[in-house]
Amino acid sequence: MKRTAITNTVTYIEPDSMSNFKSCAGVVVSGSARIFLDVNMSKADTLTLLRSEPPDMAFISHYHLDHVIWGKLVLEHTDAELFIPEGEEAYLGSLDELVQKTAGSYGLIPEWTDFIANVIGFQGLSGFSTYMPEDRVSAGHDTIQCIPSPGHSPSHTSFYFPEEKILFTGDMGIDRFGPWYGWADCDLRELVASALRLRALDVSVLLTSHGGILTSDIEKAWDNGLRKIIEREQHIEDRLHKGKTRAEIIEQGIFFRNKSEVMEPMRSFLYMWDSYMLDQHMTVLKEGGLRQFFPEFKTVIYTEKRK
Ligand SMILES: [Fe+2]
User: How far is the CA of 297 from the centre of ligand 1 (A)?
Assistant: First the structure.
């Protein structure tokens, strides 16, 4: 794992690998209390960290498994209170419940259950507490404000340090892949609204779950993420105008390209996620498209490349 000191008390921590959706980057705050945010490294690295720098409180940004697995280690190996965002409790109580609420409606229950249980290693979580939107946590000099940023997941939360102007985005898609909304419980319109709200914050250091650290061109990075969404919408609209079928649009890719070359069961998961992402766009397009809802960023975000 790689540690980067952001201030005397705030450290950004990245795992050695993010393959197989098993880990993400997180933040350790070491003030009058030690607070961990999404510190989901490999099992060995997480345990090392929990033993050498035991937290007082541990926060999870949202229920997706690449942010959650460390929670069980926190409960088993430390005295810390583990917090998840209010509204996502039902996802984490049991493996079956999580599967039903994610791949359940798509019909990949056996494959997804096997993957979660045996590749990712999730069996359900109990003994956690919940935090509320806008909760503030103090660790001496540092105050951490929980900023609701739904859309990527129902209660997805970002963490803002107002004094230092640091924002830990969580999974807002400020990375080379762009925003992701591949479950039925995602909400594309909410995600865009969340991104615009976060973009308006006064931020000097942007810490992301999968895209590293940004200290310059932060608004531009948000615009790039938003532009990726708009380009997907335009791509889908163009394909529809050309008479392409749903299957053909998914095959060409919304988020994931070259899916047919990937080994099973991951290939089926990629088709599932792109299918849900297409659903999100179709819902918004039926109501006039994103430009209908977010005219205020039209001049910033919309490209004029439509053919
Ligand atoms: Fe996520």
Answer: 25
